[in-house]
Design goal:
globular, alpha+beta, seven-stranded antiparallel beta sheet, nine-stranded antiparallel beta sheet, about 30% strand, binds 2-acetamido-2-deoxy-beta-D-glucopyranose
């Protein structure tokens, strides 16, 4: 039932008749048609065929898929965060550590935003991945290795860090991520936004690393990865969800980093997502039932695999150590409390979580590395047989 509802939601199809055909025949027979109709409605200014083979449509910022969501009928578009200084195109400084950072970005004209085109396979893969977040552990095994800010100091309004980007080896049915998150509520009223990089052959039909996000306002009954359903409002003209990262870090070799943050706009209460120091868009406050404040914010990694299949590596595949550069990390870890300023959390505000044995993944947090590392999380490991 949930799956069917989700589809109706995603495809913005109003016909109940479709439901009786079942998910697969609906997808096979109607998806191409639905997609064409959607495209006509969105009338992309141009469509960009990326090097990786997927298509990015440049659509009018006011006609983007987000506004198909019933909760966003009367939504007032916010073009940039209200509290931030204005960042003009010429004002972006590239620091040395970011110079080899490469997202497959595009360039849409003014008032036009990039939207990665959704294919039938994306939807099938995206739904199974999303449902994996809640479904009983019958077919998938998940492991999470992360830190969160302690509950008793909540509410929180932002989380950020600069993560190193890797390309952990995965096979179909597996995924491996580095991400930040904000969450509130329990049980069915769990509201959550997650963003970072991940590898998910199920979702992209390849084993490359991609920028991703997902959200839910009802403990994963609805919501989705990237823009597989309407909700996320894209505002940047170059960076978009689902973008492939063209180059990743190698052990002992180059280091590719991704600065990423989620923070709540004090005026509108929308949750902004910043990738590579650009505000790429936001999750409107009205999407959520319970995210007026963040009860939990955190950073770390997650892997998933099928039962009976060893877990993939997390991060670089190497454990935390004193050298810092061998493992996957978040440096300059920061959070926002009610003061609405990002600051590095001291160790006593940090809770570590690792549900895998030490021979699979490990985690370490230090609040005293010298600049430019600062407050830093190291996490990950080779994976393997992690289910005790
Ligand atoms: C930012 O831009 C807006 C509109 O262009 C302007 O009203 C505002 O004063 C600017 N803020 C700063 C800090 O420059
Ligand atoms: C927020 O954090 C700052 C710095 O860690 C601290 O000085 C301040 O008391 C905190 N404010 C609130 C409202 O918790």
């Amino acid at each position: 039932m949930n799956i069917t509802l989700f589809f109706v939601f995603c495809l913005v199809t109003s016909s109940i008749g479709h439901m009786v055909h079942g998910m697969h025949s609906m997808l096979k027979e109607d998806f191409e048609l639905e997609r064409k109709l959607m495209l006509i409605k969105k009338s992309p200014m141009k469509s960009i065929h990326t090097k990786s083979g997927y298509i990015v449509d440049c659509v009018n910022i006011k006609k983007q898929p987000a506004f198909d969501h019933p909760l966003l009928k009367n939504h007032k578009l916010q073009r940039k965060p209200s509290s931030e200084r204005n960042i003009s195109e010429t004002d972006v400084h590239i620091s040395p550590t970011k110079s080899n950072f490469e997202i497959e970005k595009v360039s849409c004209p003014k008032e036009i935003v990039p939207i990665r085109r959704v294919t039938k396979d994306d939807l099938i893969g995206g739904i199974s991945l999303f449902n994996g977040q809640i479904l009983a552990q019958t077919s998938s095994r998940r492991h999470s290795t992360h830190i969160s800010l302690i509950k008793y100091d909540a509410p929180y309004f932002g989380v950020s860090g600069t993560t190193s980007v890797y390309n952990p080896k995965t096979i179909k049915g597996q995924s491996s991520s580095s991400h930040i998150y904000v969450e509130n509520g329990q049980g069915d009223s769990t509201n959550k936004i997650v963003a970072g990089w991940h590898v998910s052959p199920e979702l992209y039909n390849n084993d490359a690393t991609h920028i991703y996000s997902y959200w839910t306002h009802d403990n994963f009954k609805t919501g989705c990865y990237n823009i597989l359903c309407s909700g996320f409002v894209q505002t940047d003209r170059s960076y978009y969800l689902g973008a492939r990262v063209a180059q990743t870090s190698t052990y002992g070799g180059i280091m590719v980093e991704l600065p990423i943050s989620l923070f709540q706009d004090e005026k509108t209460k929308n949750w902004w997502l910043t990738v590579a120091n650009k505000n790429i868009g936001y999750f409107p406050a009205s999407l959520f039932t319970n995210l007026a404040t963040g009860g939990l914010v955190g950073l770390g990694g997650q892997t998933a695999t099928h039962v009976g299949v060893p877990s993939p590596s997390m991060g670089s595949g190497h454990f935390p150590d004193d050298d810092f550069v061998h493992t996957c990390y978040f440096r300059n870890v920061a959070y926002q409390n009610a003061s609405r300023h990002f600051s590095g959390p001291p160790e006593y505000l940090i809770e570590k979580f690792n549900d895998a044995p030490k021979n699979c993944y490990q985690i370490r947090y230090n609040d005293d590395f010298p600049s430019p590392i600062g407050h830093a999380l190291q996490f990950g490991g080779p994976g393997g047989n992690c289910d005790n």
